[in-house]
Amino acid sequence: MISDRSANIPPFYVMEILEKAHEMEAAGAHIVHLEVGEPDFETPTAVKEAACRALEEGMTHYTHSLGIPLLRQAIARHYNERYGVDVSPDNVIVTAGTSLAMVLVFSALLNPGDEVILSNPSYACYPNLIEFVDGVPRCVDVFEEDGFNYRPAEIAGKLGEKVKGIMINSPSNPTGIVMTDDEMRGLVDVVGRRAYVISDEIYHGLVYRGREHSILEYTDHAFVLNGFSKLYAMTGWRLGYIISPPDFVRPIQKIQQNLLICANSFVQWAGVAALEETAGETAAMVRTYDERRRFLLGKLREMGFGVAVEPTGAFYILANARKFTDDSYAFCLDVLEEAHVAVAPGTDFGSGGQGYIRFSYANSLDNITEGVARLQDYLNREAS
Ligand SMILES: Cc1ncc(COP(=O)(O)O)c(C=O)c1O
Protein backbone atom coordinates (compact mmCIF):
# COMPACT_ATOMS: atom_id res chain seq x y z
CA MET A 1 0.00 0.00 0.00
CA ILE A 2 1.18 3.50 -0.85
CA SER A 3 1.45 5.67 2.29
CA ASP A 4 -1.06 8.47 2.89
CA ARG A 5 1.91 10.84 3.11
CA SER A 6 3.00 10.14 -0.47
CA ALA A 7 -0.52 9.67 -1.83
CA ASN A 8 -1.64 13.05 -0.50
CA ILE A 9 1.23 15.25 -1.67
CA PRO A 10 -0.20 17.39 -4.49
CA PRO A 11 1.34 17.65 -7.97
CA PHE A 12 2.79 20.87 -9.33
CA TYR A 13 0.51 21.92 -12.21
CA VAL A 14 3.17 24.04 -13.89
CA MET A 15 5.11 20.79 -14.37
CA GLU A 16 2.09 19.39 -16.19
CA ILE A 17 2.09 22.45 -18.47
CA LEU A 18 5.84 22.00 -19.00
CA GLU A 19 5.45 18.29 -19.76
CA LYS A 20 2.61 18.98 -22.20
CA ALA A 21 4.77 21.68 -23.84
CA HIS A 22 7.57 19.13 -24.23
CA GLU A 23 5.16 16.65 -25.84
CA MET A 24 4.06 19.34 -28.29
CA GLU A 25 7.71 20.18 -29.02
CA ALA A 26 8.45 16.50 -29.67
CA ALA A 27 5.62 16.58 -32.22
CA GLY A 28 7.28 19.55 -33.97
CA ALA A 29 5.63 22.60 -32.36
CA HIS A 30 7.68 25.65 -31.36
CA ILE A 31 6.75 26.69 -27.83
CA VAL A 32 7.78 29.91 -26.07
CA HIS A 33 8.49 29.11 -22.43
CA LEU A 34 7.33 31.77 -19.98
CA GLU A 35 6.46 29.26 -17.27
CA VAL A 36 9.91 28.13 -16.19
CA GLY A 37 11.25 29.12 -12.78
CA GLU A 38 14.93 28.78 -13.49
CA PRO A 39 17.58 31.07 -14.93
CA ASP A 40 18.30 30.66 -18.64
CA PHE A 41 21.93 31.73 -18.06
CA GLU A 42 24.93 29.44 -17.80
CA THR A 43 26.53 29.00 -14.38
CA PRO A 44 29.41 31.52 -14.13
CA THR A 45 32.77 30.20 -15.35
CA ALA A 46 34.55 30.78 -12.03
CA VAL A 47 32.05 28.43 -10.35
CA LYS A 48 32.58 25.65 -12.88
CA GLU A 49 36.34 26.06 -12.64
CA ALA A 50 36.25 25.87 -8.85
CA ALA A 51 34.21 22.64 -9.05
CA CYS A 52 36.69 21.12 -11.52
CA ARG A 53 39.61 22.15 -9.32
CA ALA A 54 37.93 20.62 -6.28
CA LEU A 55 37.38 17.36 -8.18
CA GLU A 56 41.00 17.26 -9.30
CA GLU A 57 42.15 17.93 -5.75
CA GLY A 58 40.15 14.97 -4.47
CA MET A 59 37.28 16.80 -2.76
CA THR A 60 35.04 13.83 -3.45
CA HIS A 61 34.33 12.47 0.01
CA TYR A 62 31.82 13.22 2.76
CA THR A 63 32.33 16.61 4.36
CA HIS A 64 31.39 17.76 7.85
CA SER A 65 27.60 17.43 8.14
CA LEU A 66 27.23 21.20 8.66
CA GLY A 67 29.30 22.00 5.55
CA ILE A 68 32.93 22.88 4.82
CA PRO A 69 34.23 25.65 7.12
CA LEU A 70 35.32 27.80 4.17
CA LEU A 71 31.80 27.95 2.73
CA ARG A 72 30.14 28.51 6.12
CA GLN A 73 32.57 31.40 6.70
CA ALA A 74 31.95 32.82 3.21
CA ILE A 75 28.17 32.73 3.78
CA ALA A 76 28.51 34.47 7.16
CA ARG A 77 30.76 37.10 5.56
CA HIS A 78 28.30 37.57 2.68
CA TYR A 79 25.49 38.35 5.16
CA ASN A 80 27.79 40.64 7.19
CA GLU A 81 28.82 42.59 4.10
CA ARG A 82 25.51 42.75 2.25
CA TYR A 83 23.09 43.36 5.13
CA GLY A 84 25.36 44.60 7.93
CA VAL A 85 24.25 41.75 10.20
CA ASP A 86 26.44 39.73 12.49
CA VAL A 87 26.22 36.07 11.47
CA SER A 88 28.47 33.45 13.02
CA PRO A 89 29.63 30.62 10.72
CA ASP A 90 28.63 28.33 13.61
CA ASN A 91 24.96 29.06 12.82
CA VAL A 92 25.25 28.27 9.11
CA ILE A 93 24.18 24.82 7.93
CA VAL A 94 24.98 23.96 4.32
CA THR A 95 22.55 21.61 2.61
CA ALA A 96 21.43 20.34 -0.81
CA GLY A 97 19.32 23.30 -1.93
CA THR A 98 16.80 25.60 -0.32
CA SER A 99 14.18 22.89 -0.80
CA LEU A 100 15.95 20.57 1.61
CA ALA A 101 16.62 23.52 3.91
CA MET A 102 12.81 23.85 4.21
CA VAL A 103 12.40 20.20 5.14
CA LEU A 104 15.13 20.49 7.77
CA VAL A 105 13.71 23.64 9.36
CA PHE A 106 10.09 22.43 9.35
CA SER A 107 11.25 19.08 10.81
CA ALA A 108 13.25 20.74 13.58
CA LEU A 109 10.55 23.27 14.45
CA LEU A 110 7.22 21.47 14.19
CA ASN A 111 5.55 18.82 16.30
CA PRO A 112 2.48 17.17 14.75
CA GLY A 113 -0.33 19.74 14.65
CA ASP A 114 1.96 22.77 14.97
CA GLU A 115 1.16 25.54 12.54
CA VAL A 116 3.04 27.77 10.12
CA ILE A 117 1.42 30.91 8.72
CA LEU A 118 1.71 31.20 4.94
CA SER A 119 0.45 33.77 2.50
CA ASN A 120 -2.08 32.66 -0.08
CA PRO A 121 -0.73 32.72 -2.78
CA SER A 122 2.82 31.60 -1.97
CA TYR A 123 5.45 29.13 -3.23
CA ALA A 124 3.69 25.81 -3.77
CA CYS A 125 6.09 23.60 -1.83
CA TYR A 126 5.63 25.39 1.51
CA PRO A 127 2.26 23.89 2.47
CA ASN A 128 3.18 20.52 0.98
CA LEU A 129 6.38 20.24 3.00
CA ILE A 130 4.75 21.50 6.20
CA GLU A 131 2.10 18.78 5.83
CA PHE A 132 4.79 16.26 4.96
CA VAL A 133 6.21 16.63 8.51
CA ASP A 134 2.68 16.57 10.01
CA GLY A 135 2.52 20.33 10.52
CA VAL A 136 -0.47 22.47 9.56
CA PRO A 137 -0.24 25.31 7.01
CA ARG A 138 -2.36 28.29 8.10
CA CYS A 139 -2.96 30.15 4.88
CA VAL A 140 -3.73 33.86 5.08
CA ASP A 141 -5.22 35.60 2.06
CA VAL A 142 -3.11 38.44 0.69
CA PHE A 143 -4.19 40.90 -1.96
CA GLU A 144 -2.92 42.37 -5.17
CA GLU A 145 -3.48 45.94 -3.99
CA ASP A 146 -1.13 45.29 -1.02
CA GLY A 147 1.53 43.80 -3.29
CA PHE A 148 0.43 40.40 -1.91
CA ASN A 149 2.00 41.28 1.46
CA TYR A 150 0.53 40.29 4.82
CA ARG A 151 -1.63 42.82 6.63
CA PRO A 152 0.15 42.91 10.03
CA ALA A 153 -3.12 43.57 11.95
CA GLU A 154 -4.55 40.39 10.51
CA ILE A 155 -1.45 38.39 11.45
CA ALA A 156 -1.76 39.59 15.03
CA GLY A 157 -5.12 37.83 15.27
CA LYS A 158 -3.71 34.59 13.90
CA LEU A 159 -0.75 34.10 16.25
CA GLY A 160 -2.30 31.35 18.36
CA GLU A 161 -0.54 28.87 20.69
CA LYS A 162 0.04 26.36 17.90
CA VAL A 163 1.71 28.82 15.52
CA LYS A 164 5.44 28.14 15.53
CA GLY A 165 6.45 29.96 12.37
CA ILE A 166 5.47 32.51 9.76
CA MET A 167 6.88 32.22 6.26
CA ILE A 168 8.06 35.18 4.21
CA ASN A 169 9.61 35.16 0.74
CA SER A 170 10.97 38.45 -0.55
CA PRO A 171 11.56 38.77 -3.49
CA SER A 172 8.64 36.45 -3.94
CA ASN A 173 7.74 33.54 -6.13
CA PRO A 174 5.12 33.86 -7.65
CA THR A 175 4.60 37.62 -7.31
CA GLY A 176 8.07 39.14 -7.89
CA ILE A 177 7.29 41.61 -5.09
CA VAL A 178 10.06 42.82 -2.77
CA MET A 179 9.07 43.71 0.81
CA THR A 180 10.05 47.23 1.85
CA ASP A 181 11.89 48.12 5.04
CA ASP A 182 8.60 49.33 6.58
CA GLU A 183 6.79 46.14 5.63
CA MET A 184 9.49 43.92 7.13
CA ARG A 185 9.60 46.00 10.30
CA GLY A 186 5.80 46.10 10.58
CA LEU A 187 5.57 42.32 10.38
CA VAL A 188 8.39 41.68 12.85
CA ASP A 189 6.84 44.15 15.31
CA VAL A 190 3.61 42.16 15.27
CA VAL A 191 5.19 38.70 15.42
CA GLY A 192 7.72 39.60 18.10
CA ARG A 193 9.06 36.40 19.67
CA ARG A 194 5.74 34.59 19.50
CA ALA A 195 6.78 32.66 16.38
CA TYR A 196 9.91 32.28 14.28
CA VAL A 197 9.98 34.15 11.01
CA ILE A 198 11.15 31.72 8.33
CA SER A 199 12.56 33.89 5.57
CA ASP A 200 13.12 32.28 2.18
CA GLU A 201 15.80 34.55 0.69
CA ILE A 202 16.50 32.44 -2.42
CA TYR A 203 15.80 35.37 -4.80
CA HIS A 204 18.08 37.79 -2.97
CA GLY A 205 20.36 39.65 -5.36
CA LEU A 206 17.70 39.57 -8.10
CA VAL A 207 16.29 43.00 -7.31
CA TYR A 208 15.85 45.78 -9.86
CA ARG A 209 14.92 48.78 -7.78
CA GLY A 210 15.98 49.69 -4.25
CA ARG A 211 17.23 46.72 -2.29
CA GLU A 212 15.99 43.63 -0.55
CA HIS A 213 16.23 43.14 3.21
CA SER A 214 17.26 40.08 5.16
CA ILE A 215 15.08 39.14 8.10
CA LEU A 216 18.23 39.23 10.23
CA GLU A 217 18.27 43.04 9.94
CA TYR A 218 15.12 43.03 12.08
CA THR A 219 15.19 40.00 14.40
CA ASP A 220 17.30 37.05 15.47
CA HIS A 221 14.13 35.04 16.17
CA ALA A 222 14.29 33.76 12.63
CA PHE A 223 15.57 31.19 10.18
CA VAL A 224 17.08 32.26 6.88
CA LEU A 225 16.71 29.83 3.97
CA ASN A 226 18.87 30.60 0.99
CA GLY A 227 20.69 28.93 -1.88
CA PHE A 228 22.71 29.31 -5.03
CA SER A 229 20.12 28.24 -7.63
CA LYS A 230 18.74 31.59 -8.75
CA LEU A 231 21.26 34.46 -8.53
CA TYR A 232 24.17 32.24 -9.57
CA ALA A 233 22.19 30.20 -12.14
CA MET A 234 23.06 26.98 -10.29
CA THR A 235 19.72 25.14 -10.15
CA GLY A 236 21.26 21.78 -11.03
CA TRP A 237 24.08 22.00 -8.50
CA ARG A 238 21.72 21.58 -5.51
CA LEU A 239 23.34 23.86 -2.96
CA GLY A 240 21.63 25.87 -0.26
CA TYR A 241 21.88 26.79 3.38
CA ILE A 242 20.15 27.73 6.61
CA ILE A 243 21.15 30.48 9.02
CA SER A 244 19.64 29.19 12.23
CA PRO A 245 19.15 30.36 15.80
CA PRO A 246 21.99 28.70 17.79
CA ASP A 247 19.75 26.27 19.71
CA PHE A 248 18.42 24.76 16.46
CA VAL A 249 21.81 24.04 14.86
CA ARG A 250 22.32 20.70 16.61
CA PRO A 251 18.74 19.40 15.99
CA ILE A 252 19.01 20.35 12.31
CA GLN A 253 22.46 18.79 12.11
CA LYS A 254 21.14 15.46 13.45
CA ILE A 255 18.33 15.38 10.89
CA GLN A 256 20.77 16.26 8.10
CA GLN A 257 23.17 13.49 9.21
CA ASN A 258 20.37 10.95 8.88
CA LEU A 259 18.76 12.34 5.74
CA LEU A 260 21.74 13.39 3.63
CA ILE A 261 25.00 13.06 5.65
CA CYS A 262 26.26 16.24 3.97
CA ALA A 263 25.90 18.40 0.85
CA ASN A 264 28.01 17.42 -2.21
CA SER A 265 31.63 18.14 -1.38
CA PHE A 266 33.01 19.63 -4.64
CA VAL A 267 29.80 21.64 -5.07
CA GLN A 268 30.46 23.31 -1.73
CA TRP A 269 33.85 24.48 -3.05
CA ALA A 270 32.07 25.85 -6.10
CA GLY A 271 29.73 27.71 -3.72
CA VAL A 272 32.69 29.60 -2.26
CA ALA A 273 33.63 30.78 -5.76
CA ALA A 274 30.01 31.80 -6.44
CA LEU A 275 30.02 34.07 -3.41
CA GLU A 276 33.48 35.49 -3.96
CA GLU A 277 34.23 35.57 -7.69
CA THR A 278 31.04 36.22 -9.68
CA ALA A 279 30.05 39.82 -8.89
CA GLY A 280 30.59 41.02 -12.48
CA GLU A 281 28.69 38.16 -14.10
CA THR A 282 25.73 38.28 -11.73
CA ALA A 283 25.49 42.08 -12.15
CA ALA A 284 25.26 41.56 -15.92
CA MET A 285 22.51 38.96 -15.45
CA VAL A 286 20.60 41.35 -13.19
CA ARG A 287 20.75 44.09 -15.85
CA THR A 288 19.44 41.68 -18.46
CA TYR A 289 16.59 40.44 -16.25
CA ASP A 290 15.62 44.06 -15.57
CA GLU A 291 15.46 44.90 -19.27
CA ARG A 292 13.18 41.89 -19.84
CA ARG A 293 11.08 42.74 -16.77
CA ARG A 294 10.36 46.27 -17.93
CA PHE A 295 9.50 45.08 -21.45
CA LEU A 296 7.19 42.26 -20.30
CA LEU A 297 5.48 44.38 -17.65
CA GLY A 298 4.70 47.12 -20.18
CA LYS A 299 3.34 44.62 -22.72
CA LEU A 300 1.19 42.76 -20.17
CA ARG A 301 -0.41 46.00 -19.04
CA GLU A 302 -0.98 47.06 -22.67
CA MET A 303 -2.75 43.74 -23.31
CA GLY A 304 -5.10 44.29 -20.38
CA PHE A 305 -3.51 42.15 -17.65
CA GLY A 306 -3.63 43.80 -14.23
CA VAL A 307 -0.46 44.39 -12.21
CA ALA A 308 -1.37 46.66 -9.31
CA VAL A 309 2.03 46.91 -7.59
CA GLU A 310 5.18 46.81 -9.69
CA PRO A 311 7.13 43.59 -9.18
CA THR A 312 10.80 44.56 -8.75
CA GLY A 313 12.47 41.25 -7.91
CA ALA A 314 13.00 37.57 -8.78
CA PHE A 315 12.00 36.90 -12.42
CA TYR A 316 8.22 36.68 -12.16
CA ILE A 317 5.14 38.79 -12.74
CA LEU A 318 1.85 37.56 -11.26
CA ALA A 319 -0.69 39.20 -13.51
CA ASN A 320 -4.42 39.52 -12.97
CA ALA A 321 -6.10 37.75 -15.90
CA ARG A 322 -9.73 38.07 -14.71
CA LYS A 323 -10.50 40.21 -17.72
CA PHE A 324 -9.92 37.07 -19.79
CA THR A 325 -10.76 34.12 -17.55
CA ASP A 326 -11.98 32.86 -14.17
CA ASP A 327 -10.07 29.62 -14.55
CA SER A 328 -6.29 30.06 -14.58
CA TYR A 329 -5.43 26.44 -15.38
CA ALA A 330 -7.90 26.18 -18.29
CA PHE A 331 -6.55 29.51 -19.63
CA CYS A 332 -2.95 28.24 -19.45
CA LEU A 333 -3.84 25.02 -21.26
CA ASP A 334 -5.69 26.93 -23.97
CA VAL A 335 -2.88 29.46 -24.43
CA LEU A 336 -0.43 26.55 -24.72
CA GLU A 337 -2.54 24.71 -27.27
CA GLU A 338 -3.70 27.69 -29.31
CA ALA A 339 -0.83 30.19 -29.02
CA HIS A 340 2.09 27.84 -28.25
CA VAL A 341 3.07 29.91 -25.22
CA ALA A 342 3.60 28.18 -21.87
CA VAL A 343 2.66 30.16 -18.73
CA ALA A 344 1.96 29.07 -15.15
CA PRO A 345 -1.50 29.07 -13.54
CA GLY A 346 -1.76 31.21 -10.40
CA THR A 347 -3.66 28.37 -8.72
CA ASP A 348 -0.39 26.46 -8.40
CA PHE A 349 0.38 28.89 -5.59
CA GLY A 350 -2.87 28.49 -3.66
CA SER A 351 -6.53 29.31 -4.10
CA GLY A 352 -5.61 33.03 -3.87
CA GLY A 353 -3.89 32.63 -7.25
CA GLN A 354 -7.17 31.89 -9.04
CA GLY A 355 -7.65 34.40 -11.85
CA TYR A 356 -3.90 35.11 -12.01
CA ILE A 357 -1.17 33.93 -14.37
CA ARG A 358 2.51 33.80 -13.48
CA PHE A 359 4.82 34.97 -16.25
CA SER A 360 8.53 34.21 -15.94
CA TYR A 361 11.09 36.37 -17.71
CA ALA A 362 13.89 33.85 -17.35
CA ASN A 363 13.98 33.71 -21.14
CA SER A 364 15.64 35.84 -23.84
CA LEU A 365 14.16 39.19 -24.89
CA ASP A 366 13.65 37.74 -28.39
CA ASN A 367 11.63 34.83 -27.03
CA ILE A 368 9.65 37.07 -24.68
CA THR A 369 8.88 39.37 -27.64
CA GLU A 370 7.67 36.39 -29.67
CA GLY A 371 5.62 35.03 -26.74
CA VAL A 372 3.94 38.38 -26.15
CA ALA A 373 3.06 38.74 -29.87
CA ARG A 374 1.50 35.26 -29.90
CA LEU A 375 -0.45 35.99 -26.74
CA GLN A 376 -1.75 39.25 -28.19
CA ASP A 377 -2.91 37.42 -31.35
CA TYR A 378 -4.61 34.80 -29.20
CA LEU A 379 -6.44 37.43 -27.12
CA ASN A 380 -7.49 39.26 -30.31
CA ARG A 381 -8.87 36.01 -31.75
CA GLU A 382 -10.72 35.22 -28.52
CA ALA A 383 -12.23 38.72 -28.42
CA SER A 384 -13.50 38.63 -32.02
C1 LIG B 1 10.52 30.52 -3.38
C2 LIG B 1 11.41 29.37 -3.68
N1 LIG B 1 12.06 28.76 -2.69
C3 LIG B 1 12.86 27.70 -2.93
C4 LIG B 1 13.03 27.20 -4.20
C5 LIG B 1 13.90 26.00 -4.41
O1 LIG B 1 15.24 26.35 -4.44
P1 LIG B 1 16.42 25.31 -4.52
O2 LIG B 1 16.77 25.13 -5.96
O3 LIG B 1 17.54 25.99 -3.76
O4 LIG B 1 16.00 24.06 -3.85
C6 LIG B 1 12.38 27.82 -5.27
C7 LIG B 1 12.52 27.29 -6.64
O5 LIG B 1 11.82 27.64 -7.55
C8 LIG B 1 11.56 28.94 -5.01
O6 LIG B 1 10.91 29.57 -5.99
Order of helices and strands: HHEHHEHEHEHEHEEEHHHEHEEEH
Number of strands: 12
- Measured on Cα atoms, how large is the radius of gyration? 21 Å
Please identify, by name, the CATH architecture of the largest domain: 3-Layer(aba) Sandwich
Unreliable parts: none
Strand order of the largest sheet: 2-8-7-6-5-3-4
Walk me through the structure.
The protein is an alpha/beta fold and 384 residues long. The protein has 2 domains: 4-42 and 280-379, Alpha-Beta Complex (Aspartate Aminotransferase, domain 1), CATH 3.90.1150; 61-277, Type I PLP-dependent aspartate aminotransferase-like (Major domain) (Aspartate Aminotransferase, domain 2). The chain is 43% helix and 14% strand. The chain has helices spanning 4-8, 13-26, 45-56, 69-83, 98-109, 125-132, 152-156, 181-191, 246-259, 265-277, 279-303, 328-339, 365-383, and strands at residues 32-33, 92-95, 115-120, 136-141, 163-168, 196-200, 222-227, 240-243, 316-320, 341-342, 344-345, 356-360. β3 (115-120), α6 (125-132) and β4 form a beta-alpha-beta unit. α4 (69-83) packs parallel to α10 (265-277) and α5 (98-109) packs across α6. The longest helix has 25 residues, at 279-303. The mean pLDDT is 96. It binds pyridoxal-5'-phosphate.
